[in-house]
Automatic annotation (TrEMBL), chain B:
This protein's name: Carbohydrate ABC transporter permease
Calcium found in the keyword field: no
Keywords: Cell membrane, Membrane, Transmembrane, Transmembrane helix, Transport
Organism: Ensifer oleiphilus
UniProt-listed GO biological process terms: transmembrane transport
Superkingdom assignment: Bacteria
Annotated Pfam families: BPD_transp_1
Chain ranges passing through the membrane: 12-33, 77-100, 112-132, 144-164, 185-208, 266-287
Gene3D superfamilies: MetI-like
PROSITE patterns the record matches: ABC_TM1
InterPro entries xref list: MetI-like, MetI-like_sf
Length: 325, 298
């Protein structure tokens, strides 16, 4: 709208008489002129726009099967919220939802502080090449797929020849099969998440630390502050907005407990402990073929997730000035 | 000079800080180096090898040579390279063209298009509707299902728009006054100026597509089209021995079946991350810069 207003006051149209009929013609002329000027951009954007419409909006339209009975011979029958009723009365679904929330909460509590600590430590390292070496090593896992990471950890956690159990053995403890241990598997998720992303995420905090005004450190130095006092009174307050933003945004993603991670670290023995909404949708949908029920579960998660992330965005914007987009 | 002023306590503190970080480095890298050691050991000596060692027992390329000669692995390498290359090119071109239009403040319908993109970030109806769209378009079981599906990434698009917006307006206006049309401005002015940003999102796409496995797993039934990640999953996660040593070798005791499964798995995992390691210096350069500047600006 503002674009058109801007175009209207451009000198080209300065001498259009103020008659209503003329004005309407003028508006058409503006539109035509706008099109003459802007069509090349739309030609260039066409493939991208088409991708978004076909691969993001067509699925939203296809999601209507959550409200339909799928029949082998089309058309499907509209059944309203029947599948949602089935879903909400299924104990498995509530178990899966609880798992999702528990895993997200565990990750939030135990993952989030790690990159902050790593960034604080990294910031203390003075040697440029030592720091670069540490960074290069700890960023690497972020760029590996979950299939690879699962492979690495299945090996490292092996009860017979995995590094972890070798260490436990040296300490005189009995080997433990972490991957098939219902008490341990959620911690495996938390730890692999830390292994994969804590290093990389520290970069976000490090960027915030570097942006802190050097004069604050100089002033603290003059006041005789030691390392820990500087961290407590200058560095930490300086990165509080970043911490708050990432905390809130993580809260917004609470229902995304990471399909790729779970699907690769799961197995029949521990499934009940780490089955999340996404893996449940995959299993009952693509493996069992209950398309409508699976889509209903997916839609439930999508709608709730959208609400959470939009709220998180505005809360974050309000409190820290930074949002999701 | 500066060091000499440090008190002993400060030096101990520093030593603790550095050792903590070095411990982190060990925890990160050791599991990968252990797999490397296992895969390079003489297969007969692998059983009983500790998970803590990073030195091979004996030295042999046998595991790697068995893997690289395996038809499934060869297909996987080809498929991964093909899918990654084509989808990265399509993604970068589509993203750059769309970002150029969306970075122009006067574009009619700009706000609507932004909303169109943002909605896709916050609302995703899930994998079943995606699957049905693929089915409806006849893409299932074809490379195109993995290549085309969601080829333009909304986040990367936003990164590129932000970058294009920072190109000085005067430059663009001068080019327009000289009579250059939007295509020419894009090709001769915007693209050369945006090289670092384009390199960054190309790497984003490259890493993303190389690591993609879920969509390939659900859209491609034909094993001959599986990328390396899906082959790896079938072999390492699902523990499908026949898939890797071959149906003929699985029952008798010849060739690949004699090699300890553990070393084949280790080699397979490493094989899949070789390309990531190869471009890792570039990743460090561009990802780090991109993330840092994004965080600073945000």
């Amino acid at each position: 709208m503002t674009n058109r207003d801007e175009a209207m006051i451009s000198p080209k149209f300065g001498n259009v008489p103020k008659l209503s009929a003329r004005r309407r013609q003028g508006r058409l002329a503006v539109a035509a002129d706008g099109w003459r000027r802007w069509w090349p951009y739309y030609v260039m954007m066409a493939p991208g726009i088409l991708f978004f419409l076909v691969f993001h909006y067509l699925p939203i339209w296809e999601a209507r099967i959550a409200f339909e009975q799928v029949r082998i011979v089309p058309p499907n029958i509209w059944v309203g919220i029947k599948h949602f009723q089935v879903l909400f009365s299924s104990p498995v679904f509530w178990q899966v939802l609880a798992n999702t929330l528990i895993i997200s909460a565990m990750k939030m509590v135990f993952f989030l502080p790690v990159p902050i600590i790593v960034a604080l430590l990294l910031n203390e390292v003075r040697g440029g090449s030592l720091r670069k070496f540490i960074q290069s090593a700890i960023y690497l896992p972020h760029f590996l797929s979950w299939v690879v990471i699962a492979g690495i950890f299945i090996a490292a956690l092996s009860p017979t020849d995995g590094a972890v159990n070798n260490l436990l053995g040296m300490a005189g403890m009995a080997p433990r099969s972490f991957m098939t241990d219902t008490g341990a598997i959620r911690w495996v998720l938390v730890f692999t998440e830390i292994w994969r992303s804590a290093g990389w995420d520290s970069l976000l905090y490090l960027a915030a630390i570097i942006a802190i005004d050097q004069q604050l450190y100089d002033a603290a130095e003059i006041d005789g502050a030691n390392r820990w006092q500087k961290i407590r009174h200058v560095t930490l307050p300086g990165i509080v907005p970043t911490i708050a933003t990432l905390f809130i945004l993580n809260a917004g993603m609470f229902l995304n407990a990471d399909l790729n991670q779970v699907i690769n670290l799961s197995n029949d023995v521990v499934r009940s402990k780490i089955d999340i909404v996404d893996t449940y949708v995959y299993r009952i949908g693509l493996q069992t073929g209950e398309y409508s029920l699976a889509t209903a579960a997916g839609l439930f998660k999508a709608v709730l997730g959208t609400m959470m992330i939009v709220i998180a965005h505005f809360v974050s914007k309000r409190l820290t000035g930074k949002g999701v987009w | 000079m500066a060091l000499s002023r440090k008190t002993p306590i400060e030096r101990i503190e520093y030593a603790i800080i550095v050792s903590t970080l070095l411990l982190l480095v060990v925890v990160t890298v050791q599991p990968i180096l252990n797999l490397l050691a296992v895969s390079l050991s003489e297969p007969a000596k692998v059983p009983g090898m500790s998970g803590l060692t990073i030195i091979p027992r004996g030295f042999s390329f046998e595991v790697w040579s068995v893997l690289l000669q395996h038809p499934n692995v060869q297909r996987g390498i080809f498929n991964s390279i093909f899918i990654t290359a084509v989808s990265t090119v399509i993604g970068v071109v589509g993203t750059a063209l769309m970002a150029w239009g969306l970075s122009r403040p006067g574009l009619p319908g700009r706000k609507a298009l932004f909303i169109l993109v943002l909605v896709t970030i916050v609302f995703e109806p899930g994998i079943i509707p995606d699957y049905f769209v693929n089915k409806r378009l006849g893409l299932l079981d074809s490379y195109w299902s993995v290549i085309l599906f969601k080829a333009v990434n909304a986040w990367y698009l936003i990164i590129l728009i932000r970058f294009f917006e920072e190109i000085p307006k005067e430059l663009l206006e001068a080019a327009e006054l000289d009579g250059a049309n939007p295509f020419q401005v894009f090709w001769h002015l915007v693209l050369p100026l945006a090289k670092p940003a384009l390199a960054t999102i190309s790497l984003f796409y490259l890493v993303f597509h190389w690591n993609e496995f879920f969509r390939a797993m659900i859209y491609l039934n034909d094993q001959g089209k599986w990328p390396l990640q899906v082959v790896l999953r079938q072999f390492v996660i699902d523990g499908d021995k026949v898939a890797i040593v071959g149906a003929n070798n699985a029952s008798n005791n010849t060739g690949a079946s004699q090699i300890d499964l553990r070393s084949l798995k280790a080699g397979m995992i490493l094989l899949t991350i070789v390309p990531i390691l190869a471009i890792y210096p570039l990743i460090l350069k561009f990802f780090t810069k991109g993330t840092m500047s994004g965080a600073l600006k945000g």
